[in-house]
UniProtKB/TrEMBL annotation, chain A:
Domain PBP residues, every copy: 34-261
Similarity comment: family membership: Belongs to the PstS family.
Annotated protein name in UniProt: Phosphate-binding protein
Protein's organism: Shewanella eurypsychrophilus
Function: Involved in the system for phosphate transport across the cytoplasmic membrane.
TrEMBL record, chain B:
Record-annotated membrane-spanning stretches: 12-41, 61-88, 109-130, 142-164, 261-283
UniProt similarity note: Belongs to the binding-protein-dependent transport system permease family. CysTW subfamily.
Main subcellular localisation: membrane
Domain ABC transmembrane type-1: start-end pairs: 69-279
Classification via InterPro entries: MetI-like, MetI-like_sf, Phosphate_Transport_Permease
Full protein name: ABC transporter permease subunit
Keywords: Cell membrane, Membrane, Phosphate transport, Transmembrane, Transmembrane helix, Transport
Membrane topology: Multi-pass membrane protein
Subcellular localization, as worded in the UniProt entry: Cell membrane
Protein backbone atom coordinates (compact mmCIF):
# COMPACT_ATOMS: atom_id res chain seq x y z
CA UNK A 1 0.00 0.00 0.00
CA UNK A 2 2.70 2.51 0.91
CA UNK A 3 4.53 2.75 -2.36
CA UNK A 4 6.09 5.95 -1.29
CA UNK A 5 7.31 4.33 1.86
CA UNK A 6 9.05 1.74 -0.26
CA UNK A 7 10.57 4.43 -2.43
CA UNK A 8 11.89 6.46 0.42
CA UNK A 9 12.78 3.02 1.70
CA UNK A 10 14.80 3.44 4.77
CA UNK A 11 13.51 0.36 6.50
CA UNK A 12 16.52 -0.67 8.43
CA UNK A 13 16.78 -3.15 11.17
CA UNK A 14 19.98 -2.67 13.03
CA UNK A 15 22.17 -5.36 14.32
CA UNK A 16 24.18 -4.52 17.34
CA UNK A 17 27.35 -2.75 16.34
CA UNK A 18 28.77 -1.29 19.48
CA UNK A 19 28.22 -3.97 22.07
CA UNK A 20 31.33 -2.86 23.92
CA UNK A 21 30.21 0.75 24.22
CA UNK A 22 30.54 2.53 27.53
CA UNK A 23 27.60 2.03 29.80
CA UNK A 24 26.24 5.52 30.27
CA UNK A 25 23.79 6.43 32.96
CA UNK A 26 21.13 7.24 30.41
CA UNK A 27 21.28 3.73 29.06
CA UNK A 28 20.78 2.01 32.42
CA UNK A 29 17.05 2.64 32.05
CA UNK A 30 17.06 -0.03 29.34
CA UNK A 31 18.78 -2.66 31.52
CA UNK A 32 15.75 -4.73 32.39
CA UNK A 33 13.88 -4.24 29.12
CA UNK A 34 13.38 -6.38 26.06
CA UNK A 35 11.13 -6.39 23.01
CA UNK A 36 10.64 -4.41 19.85
CA UNK A 37 10.17 -0.70 19.19
CA UNK A 38 8.94 0.42 15.76
CA UNK A 39 9.51 3.95 14.50
CA UNK A 40 8.33 5.46 11.18
CA UNK A 41 7.66 8.81 9.52
CA UNK A 42 9.63 11.99 8.80
CA UNK A 43 12.91 11.45 6.98
CA UNK A 44 14.67 14.34 8.70
CA UNK A 45 14.43 12.42 11.99
CA UNK A 46 16.16 9.31 10.78
CA UNK A 47 19.80 10.29 11.55
CA UNK A 48 18.88 11.01 15.19
CA UNK A 49 16.79 7.85 15.59
CA UNK A 50 19.53 5.74 14.03
CA UNK A 51 22.21 7.00 16.41
CA UNK A 52 19.99 6.50 19.45
CA UNK A 53 18.91 3.03 18.31
CA UNK A 54 22.49 1.92 17.76
CA UNK A 55 23.47 2.94 21.29
CA UNK A 56 20.45 1.31 22.91
CA UNK A 57 20.71 -1.96 20.99
CA UNK A 58 24.42 -2.05 21.63
CA UNK A 59 23.74 -1.69 25.34
CA UNK A 60 20.98 -4.27 25.51
CA UNK A 61 20.82 -6.77 22.64
CA UNK A 62 17.38 -8.05 23.63
CA UNK A 63 15.85 -4.75 22.46
CA UNK A 64 15.14 -4.44 18.74
CA UNK A 65 14.43 -1.04 17.19
CA UNK A 66 13.24 -0.67 13.57
CA UNK A 67 13.28 2.69 11.79
CA UNK A 68 11.31 3.45 8.61
CA UNK A 69 10.83 6.60 6.52
CA UNK A 70 7.74 7.62 4.59
CA UNK A 71 7.29 11.28 5.48
CA UNK A 72 5.40 13.18 8.15
CA UNK A 73 1.97 12.17 6.89
CA UNK A 74 2.85 8.49 7.03
CA UNK A 75 4.28 8.83 10.53
CA UNK A 76 1.10 10.36 11.91
CA UNK A 77 -1.16 7.90 10.08
CA UNK A 78 0.75 4.82 11.16
CA UNK A 79 1.07 5.75 14.81
CA UNK A 80 -2.64 6.60 14.94
CA UNK A 81 -3.49 3.18 13.53
CA UNK A 82 -1.21 1.53 16.06
CA UNK A 83 1.14 0.16 13.41
CA UNK A 84 4.21 1.76 14.99
CA UNK A 85 5.08 2.89 18.51
CA UNK A 86 6.52 6.26 17.52
CA UNK A 87 5.42 8.22 14.43
CA UNK A 88 7.73 11.09 13.54
CA UNK A 89 6.56 14.30 11.93
CA UNK A 90 8.42 17.39 10.77
CA UNK A 91 5.43 19.61 11.54
CA UNK A 92 2.89 20.05 14.31
CA UNK A 93 -0.26 17.94 14.12
CA UNK A 94 -2.89 19.40 11.83
CA UNK A 95 -6.34 20.20 13.20
CA UNK A 96 -7.72 17.10 11.55
CA UNK A 97 -5.07 14.96 13.22
CA UNK A 98 -5.68 16.38 16.70
CA UNK A 99 -8.66 14.11 17.24
CA UNK A 100 -6.61 10.93 16.81
CA UNK A 101 -5.55 10.80 20.46
CA UNK A 102 -1.86 11.45 19.82
CA UNK A 103 0.74 12.88 22.18
CA UNK A 104 3.37 15.06 20.49
CA UNK A 105 6.91 15.53 21.76
CA UNK A 106 8.98 18.22 20.04
CA UNK A 107 12.66 17.42 20.50
CA UNK A 108 14.61 19.46 17.93
CA UNK A 109 14.62 22.57 15.76
CA UNK A 110 15.41 22.26 12.06
CA UNK A 111 15.71 24.92 9.37
CA UNK A 112 14.57 24.65 5.77
CA UNK A 113 16.84 26.32 3.23
CA UNK A 114 17.12 26.85 -0.51
CA UNK A 115 19.86 24.75 -2.10
CA UNK A 116 21.63 25.16 -5.44
CA UNK A 117 24.53 23.54 -7.30
CA UNK A 118 27.98 24.34 -5.83
CA UNK A 119 29.13 25.72 -9.21
CA UNK A 120 26.31 28.25 -9.30
CA UNK A 121 27.74 31.76 -8.86
CA UNK A 122 24.68 33.08 -7.02
CA UNK A 123 25.50 33.63 -3.33
CA UNK A 124 22.47 35.45 -1.99
CA UNK A 125 18.77 35.31 -2.74
CA UNK A 126 16.18 37.58 -1.18
CA UNK A 127 12.78 36.29 -0.20
CA UNK A 128 11.20 38.21 -3.08
CA UNK A 129 13.63 36.64 -5.54
CA UNK A 130 12.89 33.13 -4.24
CA UNK A 131 9.15 33.73 -4.48
CA UNK A 132 9.44 35.00 -8.06
CA UNK A 133 11.68 32.09 -9.01
CA UNK A 134 9.21 29.58 -7.62
CA UNK A 135 6.29 31.37 -9.25
CA UNK A 136 8.05 31.03 -12.59
CA UNK A 137 8.45 34.80 -13.07
CA UNK A 138 12.25 34.67 -12.98
CA UNK A 139 13.40 31.94 -15.36
CA UNK A 140 17.09 32.72 -15.90
CA UNK A 141 19.91 32.80 -13.36
CA UNK A 142 21.17 36.01 -15.02
CA UNK A 143 18.24 37.92 -13.50
CA UNK A 144 19.50 37.21 -9.97
CA UNK A 145 23.19 37.75 -10.69
CA UNK A 146 24.25 34.36 -12.01
CA UNK A 147 25.33 32.92 -15.34
CA UNK A 148 23.09 33.01 -18.41
CA UNK A 149 21.39 29.71 -17.70
CA UNK A 150 17.82 28.52 -17.44
CA UNK A 151 16.50 27.92 -13.91
CA UNK A 152 15.23 24.39 -13.27
CA UNK A 153 12.72 24.32 -10.43
CA UNK A 154 12.58 21.42 -7.98
CA UNK A 155 10.00 20.99 -5.25
CA UNK A 156 8.77 18.28 -2.87
CA UNK A 157 5.45 16.44 -2.91
CA UNK A 158 2.46 17.65 -0.91
CA UNK A 159 2.99 15.05 1.83
CA UNK A 160 6.33 16.55 2.77
CA UNK A 161 6.66 18.49 6.02
CA UNK A 162 9.63 20.30 4.48
CA UNK A 163 7.42 21.52 1.66
CA UNK A 164 4.72 22.83 3.98
CA UNK A 165 7.27 24.82 6.00
CA UNK A 166 8.93 26.16 2.85
CA UNK A 167 5.62 27.07 1.27
CA UNK A 168 4.18 28.78 4.37
CA UNK A 169 7.23 30.53 5.81
CA UNK A 170 9.27 31.33 2.75
CA UNK A 171 6.91 31.50 -0.21
CA UNK A 172 4.13 33.00 1.96
CA UNK A 173 1.67 30.72 0.25
CA UNK A 174 2.58 31.92 -3.25
CA UNK A 175 1.47 29.57 -5.99
CA UNK A 176 4.12 27.19 -7.24
CA UNK A 177 4.86 27.25 -10.98
CA UNK A 178 3.31 24.26 -12.73
CA UNK A 179 6.48 23.19 -14.46
CA UNK A 180 8.34 22.54 -11.21
CA UNK A 181 9.77 19.04 -10.99
CA UNK A 182 8.58 17.12 -7.95
CA UNK A 183 10.93 14.76 -6.08
CA UNK A 184 9.74 12.40 -3.37
CA UNK A 185 12.42 12.70 -0.66
CA UNK A 186 15.22 14.82 0.81
CA UNK A 187 17.73 12.41 -0.70
CA UNK A 188 16.24 12.60 -4.18
CA UNK A 189 16.28 16.39 -3.90
CA UNK A 190 19.97 16.43 -3.06
CA UNK A 191 20.79 14.08 -5.94
CA UNK A 192 18.81 16.20 -8.40
CA UNK A 193 20.37 19.50 -7.29
CA UNK A 194 23.93 18.20 -7.05
CA UNK A 195 23.79 17.02 -10.69
CA UNK A 196 22.29 20.10 -12.29
CA UNK A 197 24.03 23.49 -12.41
CA UNK A 198 20.75 25.21 -13.29
CA UNK A 199 18.72 23.67 -10.50
CA UNK A 200 17.16 25.22 -7.42
CA UNK A 201 15.48 23.26 -4.63
CA UNK A 202 15.10 23.23 -0.87
CA UNK A 203 15.85 20.83 1.95
CA UNK A 204 16.27 20.48 5.68
CA UNK A 205 19.37 22.34 6.95
CA UNK A 206 20.66 19.07 8.42
CA UNK A 207 20.99 17.66 4.89
CA UNK A 208 23.22 20.43 3.52
CA UNK A 209 26.83 19.39 2.89
CA UNK A 210 29.48 19.91 0.22
CA UNK A 211 27.32 18.23 -2.46
CA UNK A 212 25.04 21.27 -2.60
CA UNK A 213 25.32 24.96 -1.75
CA UNK A 214 22.93 26.99 0.38
CA UNK A 215 22.93 30.65 -0.72
CA UNK A 216 22.36 33.19 2.04
CA UNK A 217 18.76 34.28 2.50
CA UNK A 218 18.36 38.05 2.84
CA UNK A 219 22.11 37.98 3.70
CA UNK A 220 21.54 35.46 6.52
CA UNK A 221 23.41 32.17 6.33
CA UNK A 222 21.05 29.29 7.10
CA UNK A 223 23.22 27.65 9.76
CA UNK A 224 22.39 25.78 12.94
CA UNK A 225 23.33 28.82 15.02
CA UNK A 226 21.14 31.20 12.99
CA UNK A 227 18.22 28.79 13.32
CA UNK A 228 18.67 28.54 17.09
CA UNK A 229 18.88 32.30 17.63
CA UNK A 230 15.81 32.89 15.49
CA UNK A 231 17.81 35.02 13.05
CA UNK A 232 17.04 32.60 10.24
CA UNK A 233 13.25 32.51 10.12
CA UNK A 234 12.40 29.40 8.09
CA UNK A 235 12.47 26.87 10.92
CA UNK A 236 10.29 24.10 12.24
CA UNK A 237 10.23 21.63 15.07
CA UNK A 238 10.76 17.91 14.76
CA UNK A 239 8.21 15.85 16.68
CA UNK A 240 7.84 12.31 17.98
CA UNK A 241 4.20 11.27 18.25
CA UNK A 242 2.75 8.44 20.30
CA UNK A 243 -0.77 7.07 20.59
CA UNK A 244 -1.88 8.05 24.09
CA UNK A 245 0.61 8.35 26.93
CA UNK A 246 3.72 6.29 26.17
CA UNK A 247 4.87 3.52 28.48
CA UNK A 248 7.65 0.96 28.82
CA UNK A 249 10.16 0.88 26.03
CA UNK A 250 8.52 3.77 24.12
CA UNK A 251 8.67 5.97 27.22
CA UNK A 252 12.30 5.02 27.87
CA UNK A 253 13.25 5.80 24.26
CA UNK A 254 11.64 9.24 24.39
CA UNK A 255 13.36 9.97 27.70
CA UNK A 256 16.65 8.92 26.13
CA UNK A 257 16.17 11.36 23.23
CA UNK A 258 15.67 14.15 25.78
CA UNK A 259 18.71 13.12 27.83
CA UNK A 260 22.11 14.85 27.42
CA UNK A 261 23.29 11.94 25.31
CA UNK A 262 20.21 12.26 23.10
CA UNK A 263 21.00 15.95 22.67
CA UNK A 264 24.45 14.95 21.46
CA UNK A 265 22.90 12.71 18.79
CA UNK A 266 20.57 15.54 17.75
CA UNK A 267 23.46 17.98 17.40
CA UNK A 268 25.59 15.47 15.53
CA UNK A 269 22.73 15.11 13.02
CA UNK A 270 22.72 18.85 12.32
CA UNK A 271 19.75 19.93 14.44
CA UNK A 272 19.27 21.94 17.62
CA UNK A 273 18.02 19.98 20.64
CA UNK A 274 15.01 21.18 22.62
CA UNK A 275 15.25 20.55 26.35
CA UNK A 276 11.72 20.57 27.60
CA UNK A 277 9.03 18.15 26.63
CA UNK A 278 6.28 20.18 25.00
CA UNK B 1 -5.81 -54.09 -8.62
CA UNK B 2 -5.70 -52.69 -5.18
CA UNK B 3 -2.86 -50.34 -6.04
CA UNK B 4 -4.78 -49.12 -9.09
CA UNK B 5 -7.77 -48.33 -6.92
CA UNK B 6 -5.50 -46.53 -4.54
CA UNK B 7 -4.04 -44.22 -7.22
CA UNK B 8 -7.52 -43.56 -8.55
CA UNK B 9 -8.67 -42.57 -5.10
CA UNK B 10 -5.59 -40.43 -4.63
CA UNK B 11 -6.23 -38.80 -7.97
CA UNK B 12 -9.76 -37.77 -7.10
CA UNK B 13 -8.51 -36.51 -3.78
CA UNK B 14 -5.79 -34.48 -5.51
CA UNK B 15 -8.29 -33.19 -8.05
CA UNK B 16 -10.59 -32.08 -5.28
CA UNK B 17 -7.75 -30.25 -3.57
CA UNK B 18 -6.73 -28.53 -6.79
CA UNK B 19 -10.25 -27.45 -7.60
CA UNK B 20 -10.66 -26.06 -4.10
CA UNK B 21 -7.40 -24.14 -4.42
CA UNK B 22 -8.42 -22.73 -7.78
CA UNK B 23 -11.81 -21.67 -6.45
CA UNK B 24 -10.30 -20.06 -3.35
CA UNK B 25 -7.67 -18.11 -5.25
CA UNK B 26 -10.24 -17.08 -7.84
CA UNK B 27 -12.54 -15.81 -5.12
CA UNK B 28 -9.68 -13.94 -3.46
CA UNK B 29 -8.84 -12.24 -6.72
CA UNK B 30 -12.47 -11.39 -7.31
CA UNK B 31 -12.81 -9.94 -3.82
CA UNK B 32 -9.77 -7.72 -4.39
CA UNK B 33 -11.44 -6.33 -7.49
CA UNK B 34 -14.76 -5.90 -5.70
CA UNK B 35 -13.12 -4.09 -2.80
CA UNK B 36 -11.25 -1.73 -5.10
CA UNK B 37 -14.39 -0.91 -7.03
CA UNK B 38 -16.46 -0.65 -3.84
CA UNK B 39 -14.04 1.86 -2.31
CA UNK B 40 -13.41 3.95 -5.39
CA UNK B 41 -16.89 4.05 -6.90
CA UNK B 42 -18.35 6.63 -4.46
CA UNK B 43 -15.40 8.96 -5.01
CA UNK B 44 -15.55 8.35 -8.69
CA UNK B 45 -19.23 9.19 -8.88
CA UNK B 46 -19.52 12.07 -6.41
CA UNK B 47 -16.28 13.94 -7.00
CA UNK B 48 -16.14 13.94 -10.77
CA UNK B 49 -16.51 17.70 -10.84
CA UNK B 50 -13.54 18.18 -8.50
CA UNK B 51 -11.31 15.48 -9.95
CA UNK B 52 -11.79 15.77 -13.69
CA UNK B 53 -10.08 19.11 -14.10
CA UNK B 54 -6.72 20.15 -15.40
CA UNK B 55 -5.35 22.02 -12.40
CA UNK B 56 -3.58 20.22 -9.56
CA UNK B 57 -2.79 22.77 -6.84
CA UNK B 58 -3.75 21.26 -3.50
CA UNK B 59 -2.69 24.36 -1.57
CA UNK B 60 -5.18 26.40 -3.60
CA UNK B 61 -7.89 23.74 -3.54
CA UNK B 62 -7.58 22.41 -7.08
CA UNK B 63 -7.51 18.63 -7.33
CA UNK B 64 -7.75 17.90 -11.04
CA UNK B 65 -6.03 14.81 -12.41
CA UNK B 66 -6.61 15.28 -16.14
CA UNK B 67 -3.02 16.43 -16.68
CA UNK B 68 -1.89 13.13 -15.17
CA UNK B 69 -4.28 11.17 -17.37
CA UNK B 70 -2.82 12.92 -20.39
CA UNK B 71 0.72 12.29 -19.10
CA UNK B 72 0.06 8.58 -18.65
CA UNK B 73 -1.52 8.20 -22.06
CA UNK B 74 1.18 10.08 -23.93
CA UNK B 75 3.87 8.16 -22.06
CA UNK B 76 2.31 4.78 -22.82
CA UNK B 77 1.34 5.56 -26.42
CA UNK B 78 4.73 6.95 -27.45
CA UNK B 79 6.77 4.25 -25.76
CA UNK B 80 4.56 1.42 -27.04
CA UNK B 81 4.66 2.62 -30.63
CA UNK B 82 8.45 2.89 -30.60
CA UNK B 83 8.91 -0.38 -28.76
CA UNK B 84 6.53 -2.09 -31.18
CA UNK B 85 8.45 -0.98 -34.25
CA UNK B 86 11.75 -2.03 -32.68
CA UNK B 87 10.23 -5.35 -31.63
CA UNK B 88 9.08 -6.11 -35.19
CA UNK B 89 12.59 -5.31 -36.40
CA UNK B 90 14.20 -7.58 -33.81
CA UNK B 91 11.71 -10.33 -34.53
CA UNK B 92 12.38 -10.28 -38.26
CA UNK B 93 16.10 -10.28 -37.55
CA UNK B 94 15.75 -13.31 -35.29
CA UNK B 95 13.84 -15.22 -37.95
CA UNK B 96 15.79 -14.19 -41.02
CA UNK B 97 19.36 -13.82 -39.87
CA UNK B 98 21.87 -16.48 -40.85
CA UNK B 99 24.06 -15.63 -37.86
CA UNK B 100 22.37 -17.99 -35.44
CA UNK B 101 24.83 -17.25 -32.65
CA UNK B 102 23.94 -13.57 -32.78
CA UNK B 103 20.26 -14.45 -32.65
CA UNK B 104 20.83 -16.73 -29.68
CA UNK B 105 22.67 -13.96 -27.83
CA UNK B 106 19.95 -11.46 -28.70
CA UNK B 107 17.20 -13.73 -27.49
CA UNK B 108 18.85 -14.55 -24.20
CA UNK B 109 19.60 -10.85 -23.73
CA UNK B 110 15.92 -10.03 -24.23
CA UNK B 111 14.91 -12.68 -21.71
CA UNK B 112 17.47 -11.29 -19.28
CA UNK B 113 16.10 -7.77 -19.82
CA UNK B 114 12.62 -8.94 -18.87
CA UNK B 115 13.92 -9.67 -15.38
CA UNK B 116 15.75 -6.39 -14.68
CA UNK B 117 14.02 -4.40 -11.95
CA UNK B 118 12.73 -1.06 -13.24
CA UNK B 119 14.46 0.83 -10.46
CA UNK B 120 17.81 -0.23 -11.93
CA UNK B 121 16.84 1.28 -15.29
CA UNK B 122 15.73 4.39 -13.43
CA UNK B 123 18.99 4.70 -11.56
CA UNK B 124 21.07 4.18 -14.70
CA UNK B 125 19.07 6.82 -16.56
CA UNK B 126 19.40 9.22 -13.62
CA UNK B 127 23.18 9.14 -13.90
CA UNK B 128 23.65 8.58 -17.64
CA UNK B 129 20.69 9.75 -19.70
CA UNK B 130 19.63 12.83 -17.73
CA UNK B 131 23.08 14.50 -17.62
CA UNK B 132 23.32 13.87 -21.38
CA UNK B 133 20.00 15.61 -22.01
CA UNK B 134 20.80 18.42 -19.61
CA UNK B 135 24.43 19.26 -20.19
CA UNK B 136 25.23 18.16 -23.71
CA UNK B 137 21.94 18.58 -25.51
CA UNK B 138 20.81 21.53 -23.31
CA UNK B 139 17.22 20.35 -23.07
CA UNK B 140 16.01 21.71 -19.75
CA UNK B 141 16.51 19.84 -16.52
CA UNK B 142 16.47 16.45 -18.23
CA UNK B 143 13.54 15.19 -16.18
CA UNK B 144 11.09 14.80 -19.01
CA UNK B 145 8.58 12.75 -20.93
CA UNK B 146 11.40 11.86 -23.30
CA UNK B 147 13.63 10.39 -20.60
CA UNK B 148 10.79 8.28 -19.20
CA UNK B 149 9.83 7.11 -22.70
CA UNK B 150 13.42 6.04 -23.47
CA UNK B 151 13.56 3.78 -20.42
CA UNK B 152 9.98 2.52 -20.78
CA UNK B 153 10.86 1.31 -24.27
CA UNK B 154 13.59 -0.84 -22.73
CA UNK B 155 11.11 -2.08 -20.15
CA UNK B 156 8.34 -3.19 -22.51
CA UNK B 157 10.53 -4.30 -25.40
CA UNK B 158 11.19 -7.80 -23.98
CA UNK B 159 7.47 -8.32 -23.31
CA UNK B 160 6.50 -7.56 -26.90
CA UNK B 161 9.51 -9.36 -28.36
CA UNK B 162 8.98 -12.61 -26.46
CA UNK B 163 5.32 -12.63 -27.39
CA UNK B 164 6.07 -11.95 -31.06
CA UNK B 165 8.67 -14.67 -30.98
CA UNK B 166 6.21 -17.18 -29.57
CA UNK B 167 3.72 -16.35 -32.30
CA UNK B 168 5.97 -16.13 -35.35
CA UNK B 169 8.50 -18.92 -34.78
CA UNK B 170 6.01 -21.81 -35.24
CA UNK B 171 4.45 -20.02 -38.22
CA UNK B 172 7.88 -19.60 -39.76
CA UNK B 173 8.70 -23.26 -39.34
CA UNK B 174 5.38 -24.14 -40.91
CA UNK B 175 5.49 -21.86 -43.90
CA UNK B 176 9.11 -21.05 -44.71
CA UNK B 177 9.77 -24.08 -46.89
CA UNK B 178 6.53 -23.81 -48.83
CA UNK B 179 7.06 -20.12 -49.43
CA UNK B 180 10.59 -20.75 -50.62
CA UNK B 181 9.26 -23.34 -53.05
CA UNK B 182 6.87 -20.73 -54.44
CA UNK B 183 9.79 -18.37 -55.01
CA UNK B 184 9.34 -16.04 -52.03
CA UNK B 185 12.46 -14.50 -50.60
CA UNK B 186 12.75 -14.80 -46.80
CA UNK B 187 11.94 -11.08 -46.46
CA UNK B 188 8.85 -11.47 -48.60
CA UNK B 189 7.82 -14.53 -46.60
CA UNK B 190 8.03 -12.51 -43.41
CA UNK B 191 6.21 -9.45 -44.72
CA UNK B 192 3.62 -11.11 -46.97
CA UNK B 193 2.85 -14.33 -45.15
CA UNK B 194 3.89 -14.35 -41.50
CA UNK B 195 2.88 -10.84 -40.45
CA UNK B 196 -0.55 -10.76 -42.13
CA UNK B 197 -1.29 -14.24 -40.83
CA UNK B 198 -0.95 -13.23 -37.17
CA UNK B 199 -1.75 -9.53 -37.20
CA UNK B 200 -4.39 -9.90 -34.49
CA UNK B 201 -1.98 -11.70 -32.19
CA UNK B 202 0.60 -9.00 -32.86
CA UNK B 203 -1.96 -6.43 -31.78
CA UNK B 204 -2.42 -8.46 -28.61
CA UNK B 205 1.32 -8.33 -27.96
CA UNK B 206 1.36 -4.57 -28.46
CA UNK B 207 -1.60 -4.15 -26.11
CA UNK B 208 0.19 -6.12 -23.42
CA UNK B 209 3.20 -3.84 -23.81
CA UNK B 210 0.90 -0.84 -23.61
CA UNK B 211 -0.62 -2.21 -20.42
CA UNK B 212 2.80 -2.67 -18.89
CA UNK B 213 3.74 0.90 -19.85
CA UNK B 214 0.60 2.32 -18.25
CA UNK B 215 1.15 0.39 -15.05
CA UNK B 216 4.81 1.13 -14.44
CA UNK B 217 5.42 3.48 -11.53
CA UNK B 218 9.11 3.66 -10.81
CA UNK B 219 10.36 5.01 -14.15
CA UNK B 220 7.91 7.92 -14.49
CA UNK B 221 8.36 8.72 -10.79
CA UNK B 222 12.14 8.84 -11.10
CA UNK B 223 12.54 10.32 -14.57
CA UNK B 224 9.49 12.22 -15.78
CA UNK B 225 9.82 15.15 -13.35
CA UNK B 226 6.30 14.78 -11.88
CA UNK B 227 5.24 18.31 -12.81
CA UNK B 228 1.46 18.52 -13.00
CA UNK B 229 1.26 20.31 -16.33
CA UNK B 230 0.21 19.59 -19.87
CA UNK B 231 3.52 19.19 -21.71
CA UNK B 232 4.14 21.38 -24.72
CA UNK B 233 6.79 19.00 -26.07
CA UNK B 234 8.50 15.72 -25.30
CA UNK B 235 11.22 17.48 -23.30
CA UNK B 236 8.76 18.85 -20.76
CA UNK B 237 8.17 17.23 -17.38
CA UNK B 238 4.97 15.26 -16.88
CA UNK B 239 3.39 13.23 -14.09
CA UNK B 240 1.82 9.84 -14.66
CA UNK B 241 -1.18 8.54 -12.73
CA UNK B 242 0.92 5.84 -11.09
CA UNK B 243 3.58 8.32 -9.97
CA UNK B 244 0.79 10.56 -8.75
CA UNK B 245 -0.55 7.81 -6.50
CA UNK B 246 2.93 7.08 -5.19
CA UNK B 247 3.53 10.76 -4.41
CA UNK B 248 0.21 11.56 -2.77
CA UNK B 249 -0.39 8.34 -0.81
CA UNK B 250 1.20 9.80 2.31
CA UNK B 251 -1.05 12.85 2.70
CA UNK B 252 -3.75 12.91 5.35
CA UNK B 253 -6.51 10.44 4.96
CA UNK B 254 -9.91 11.62 3.85
CA UNK B 255 -8.87 14.85 2.17
CA UNK B 256 -9.65 15.76 -1.41
CA UNK B 257 -6.10 14.97 -2.49
CA UNK B 258 -6.55 11.52 -1.00
CA UNK B 259 -9.85 11.05 -2.81
CA UNK B 260 -8.27 11.88 -6.14
CA UNK B 261 -6.13 8.77 -5.65
CA UNK B 262 -9.20 6.58 -5.81
CA UNK B 263 -10.23 8.18 -9.08
CA UNK B 264 -6.70 7.66 -10.41
CA UNK B 265 -6.62 4.05 -9.22
CA UNK B 266 -10.02 3.35 -10.67
CA UNK B 267 -9.03 4.81 -14.04
CA UNK B 268 -5.88 2.69 -14.10
CA UNK B 269 -7.80 -0.43 -13.10
CA UNK B 270 -10.46 0.10 -15.73
CA UNK B 271 -7.87 0.83 -18.38
CA UNK B 272 -5.88 -2.32 -17.55
CA UNK B 273 -8.96 -4.50 -17.35
CA UNK B 274 -10.27 -3.19 -20.66
CA UNK B 275 -6.97 -3.73 -22.46
CA UNK B 276 -6.58 -7.19 -20.94
CA UNK B 277 -10.05 -8.22 -22.04
CA UNK B 278 -9.50 -6.74 -25.49
CA UNK B 279 -6.23 -8.56 -26.03
CA UNK B 280 -7.70 -11.82 -24.65
CA UNK B 281 -10.62 -11.43 -27.00
CA UNK B 282 -8.45 -10.69 -30.01
CA UNK B 283 -6.03 -13.53 -29.34
CA UNK B 284 -8.81 -15.93 -28.42
CA UNK B 285 -10.86 -15.24 -31.53
CA UNK B 286 -7.99 -15.79 -33.90
CA UNK B 287 -6.29 -18.68 -32.18
CA UNK B 288 -3.50 -19.84 -34.43
CA UNK B 289 -3.49 -23.33 -35.82
CA UNK B 290 -0.40 -24.86 -34.30
CA UNK B 291 1.66 -27.16 -36.49
CA UNK B 292 0.94 -30.76 -35.70
Amino acid sequence: MMLKTCFVCLITTFTLLTSNSLIADELSAFDEMSGQLNIAGGTAHIPVMKKAARQIMGHNPSIRITIAGGGSGVGVQQVAKGLVNIGNSGRALKNKEMGLGLNSYAFAIDGVAVIIHPDNRVDDLSQQQIIEIYQGKITNWQEVGGQDRQIHLFSRDEASGTRSVFSKRLLKGAQLAENANIVPSNGAMKTAISQDVGAIGYSSVGYIDEMVKAPTYNQIKPSQAACASGEYPVVRRLYMNTKGVPSGLTQAFIDYIYSPEGAKHIQASGYIPLDAKL
Amino acid sequence: MQSFNYTLKQNTWMQGLLVTLVVVSGLLLLSVFCFLIWFSLPVFLTETSAVFKLKWQPEQGHFGILAMVFGTLSLALISTSFAFVIAIGLNSFCLLSRRRWLVAILQSLLKFMAGIPTVVYGLAALFLLLPLLRNILQLGSGYSLFAAVCMLILLILPVICVMLDNITTPLWQQHALGAQALGFSPEQTYLQIILPHCKVNICGAALLGFNRAIGDTMLPLMLAGNATQLPSGVFDAIRSLTAHIALVIATDQGGEAYNSLFAAGMLLLMCSAFICLLSRYLVGRNRLVQPA
